[in-house]
Amino acid sequence: xxxxxxxxxxxxxxxxxxxxxxxxxxxxxxxxxxxxxxxxxxxxxxxxxxxxxxxxxxxxxxxxxxxxxxxxxxxxxxxxxxxxxxxxxxxxxxxxxxxxxxxxxxxxxxxxxxxxxxxxxxxxxxxxxxxxxxxxxxxxxxxxxxxxxxxxxxxxxxxxxxxxxxxxxxxxxxxxxxxxxxxxxxxxxxxxxxxxxxxxxxxxxxxxxxxxxxxxxxxxxxxxxxxxxxxxxxxxxxxxxxxxxxxxxxxxxxxxxxxxxxxxxxxxxxxxxxxxxxxxxxxxxxxxxxxxxxxxxxxxxxxxxxxxxxxxxxxxxxxxxxxxxxxxxxxxxxxxxxxxxxxxxxxxxxxxxxxxxxxxxxxxxxxxxxxxxxxxxxxxxxxxxxxxxxxxxxxxxxxxxxxxxxxxxxxxxxxxxxxxxxxxxxxxxxx
Length: 431
Ligand code: SAH
What we know:
Blueprint: H1 2-15, E1 29-34, H2 39-58, E2 63-68, H3 69-81, E3 87-89, H4 97-109, E4 120-122, E5 143-147, E6 149-150, H5 161-165, E7 169-170, H6 173-185, E8 190-194, E9 202-203, E10 206-207, H7 208-216, E11 223-227, H8 236-244, E12 251-253, H9 261-266, H10 273-286, E13 291-298, H11 305-318, E14 322-327, H12 335-339, H13 346-370, E15 375-383, E16 390-395, E17 400-404, E18 413-421, E19 425-430
Helix pairs in contact: 7-8, 11-13
S-adenosyl-L-homocysteine is lined by residues 37-38, 152, 158-159, 161, 196-197, 228, 230, 255, 257, 295, 297, 326, 328-329, 331.
């Protein structure tokens, strides 16, 4: 989503006559696009800003901006910690970027001293802002990110997203299909639909399943993916499209968060562990060979050993292809921060995380090993970083696959017989 928002900002700024430069050292303006989801994301940003500050000491005319969720989340505190920041702009205010840069540049021209210059702050959240008219500037490639929905209405107690990205709003279906047609014309082969709870998409009477079908039918498009859906919005309409549209990939990233119904309740996830298991059975029945991945949080407020073990057991039973696993990180302003103590010791969180990572690594390796001897369809993305004689690409189920180039080329789908695997990669030969 951050990549997609950066492309949007590049679109807005390019339209008003600015241009991106390949090297940081050539830039007059540096915008740091940020995430607020966990504390370590914020720590990374502060370190990046310190680094930029060194450059600004030598080049006082350099304009430094902080954009995105952390800007929205930390506002004044960010300016206290990094007073050299010229611009703070949240996710619904990017239209003001050109005006902000103009006014800051005027300050630079009139030699207003650095300390006297007021930062430009744009933090209004606007439930009508969907940037529908802005054409993002994308890097050339095979895969394009397409934001179909902004904001979030779910209110999970651990999550900062609704507070920094505002209310949920969907873009018009017709416009999105036209966008995908343009992307195909530009040479993209795969589109990833993006939204915070992407499958709660709705536009007039169309739902997410309708959108998947419509996008899947665009001529010349090889693959459609999406991230991240919410289990409570995994409707039959979505499952139908995954089962029946040949373009829609049979890969679902389905964040579980916890395998304990009590913890899920404290998280306000709106489903039980049992309902999630039933959904997984239905998905596996209706979409054979579906690859499932997930997000897990350990050490959420009040999580007991027994509740944690329910998560462990659920991961062992479901056997995800892969998982993103996190220690709970309390975020100021969330419902949990206000109402539930962050009472699981850091060491316990660390130990639990270690246990599920080990479990998941073994499961992922087993699933990969089971692919040996079989053939997978790989959309070729580019040259392998480690070996110039090989290409890499993804399977329909989103597994990275590496194989000798031979007579294949970037952008085509090739059948690869898998002969071996590493921890996260399939290795094979074109057949
Ligand atoms: N709306 C997206 C959320 C993106 S954040 C979705 O539902 O998929 C990606 C993941 O970060 C979440 O699924 C969750 O597992 C994790 N996460 C969010 N807030 C967190 C927090 N406060 N501490 C730890 N992990 C968190």
